[in-house]
Amino acid sequence: MRTRHTSSIAATAIHTKTLFMFLVVAPFFCPGKVDAQRLVRGTVSDASGTPLIGANIVAQRSGKGTATDTNGTYEIEVAPTDSVLTISYTGFLTRHIPIGAQEVINVTMSEELTELDEVQIIGFGTSTRRALTTAVESVDSDVYEGAAKATLLQALQGRVAGAHIIQSTGVTGSAMNI
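and the corresponding structure tokens:
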């Protein structure tokens, strides 16, 4: 009787070990089923069909991203949890496209029709004229176009109030100091 009880315990232990090994080893034989990445591809163009170079494509949930090439085409691997692609490009409205079961997603972008506010470029960033609390000096581009000067700094010399632009030596082509 003891041998029968001992043999059933041994059989149960063998079955438990077999089940454990199956659960541990099986995912390695089916890697595609555990985390199935899939490839989505397509093109991004404007309303006239011109491909948009460098448009950003991001899978919303995983955060994976890519950019379009010189033909406006892209390829991105998406996870099963990704359900939306976000496509953005400067000067165009951002699009949010559901992925679903699609493998090819071609996107036509619409221009963003907004007026640009006057932007001031300052030494350490950009700002709008309304937000500035310091003095601002504007110089038209015709100052440089009509000047018989070799560099932009030479053309601006003496034309911008408060800016002291000097040439450190009298040698032609030497560095300018502001």
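(Above: one complete record from the training split.) The mean pLDDT is 75.
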